[in-house]
Amino acid sequence: MKLISWNIDSLNAALTGVSERALLSRNVLKTIVDHNPEVIALQETKLPSTGPTKKHLEILKNMFPDYEIVWNSSVEPARKGYAGTMFLYKNHLSPAVTFPKIGAPGTMDYEGRIITLEFDNFYLTQVYTPNAGEGLNRLDERQIWDIKYADYLEELDKKKPVIATGDFNVAHREIDLAHPENNRQSAGFTDEEREGFTNLLARGFTDTFRYLHGDVAGVYTWWAQRVKTSKINNSGWRIDYFLVSDRIADWVIKSEMIDSGPRQDHTPILLEIDSQC
Predict the structure, then answer these.
(1) pLDDT tens digits, residue range 9-27?
(2) C-alpha–C-alpha distance, residues 251 and 185, integer Å
(3) CB neighbour list of residue 232: distance below 8 Å, 6 or more residues apart
(4) How far apart are CA 28 and CA 268, in angstroms?
(5) Domains in the chain, ordered, with CATH?
(6) pLDDT grade, residue 105 (50/70/90)?
(7) What is the mean pLDDT of residues 139-155?
(8) Is residue 16 within a helix (H) or strand (E), and if so which, with residue range?
(9) What number is the average pLDDT over the span 153-161?
């Protein structure tokens, strides 16, 4: 089974935009199509509370004709057109779909951050983890989120194995970003966020990239858009993950990044796993 996850940073821009960046985003979508995964997870869709428009759905159906589509959008009292997630899965699959709330603080449970697909043998869940924010103004809430989310995955894991993917907004170890010494107090690399991820793994989960590739450094999933040379210089962060329950780590065949060409920001990640749905 092949799975792909990508923080798309605006589905509307990727599907209908005319800027150079929009064209680069569509090229990434074409690359995802070429991989022919069973399931695609998208984060930061930034759709309205009503979800994709008729035009969005038409484009997606043309691009992914063999897929069903489900989404979770930000709704009041959360900000409009903010965060959001989407799954596309092959239409021969028939998972049960849920949009869980985890008791997160503030408006986080209303920001469309989690979708879970339940298959016969496992759960597949995606997350767009809240950023700690500018000036770390959301760090306290982020720490509560990390605990609540770990609780949620642990409860799923009691029922059947879990595959969890998405933008976790944390570089776990120093080898997961190019310049750890300059980012000690940056969102995504605070001691608190890193500890939150360590605690999540300790609940019984495996970082599949590290499981297969060990301590390899210099492999990232995100490069800052604001710095024009960040990708050229590979000054990146690894903040997107595929995690699995420890007991199914030996199901993992491949866990890697997909080349997104010159497009900065996130690159898609791929997991190939030996499992029958």
Answers:
(1) 999 999 999 999 999 999 9
(2) 36
(3) none
(4) 8
(5) 2-273 (3.60.10.10)
(6) very high
(7) 98
(8) helix 11-16
(9) 98
Token pair for 74: 């930000």
Q: Are 114 and 70 in contact (CB under 8 A)?
A: no
- Residues 162-220 have pLDDT tens digits of 999 999 999 999 999 999 999 999 999 999 999 999 999 999 999 999 999 999 999 99
Q: Are 97 and 86 in contact (CB under 8 A)?
A: no
The residues assigned a catalytic role are 128, 167
Rounded distance between C-alpha atoms, residue 106 and residue 180, angstroms: 30
> Parallel, antiparallel, or unpaired: how do β-strands 123-128 and 162-167 relate?
parallel
Spatial distance between the Cα atoms of 74 and 51, rounded to a whole number of angstroms:
9
Q: Cis ω on the peptide bond leading into residue 95 (within 30° of 0)?
A: no
Indicate the residue type of 100: P
Using the Cα atoms of residue 70, residue 75, residue 157 and residue 131 in order, give the sign of their dihedral: positive
From the list 53, 52, 32, 40, the residue with the least C-alpha distance to 5 is 40
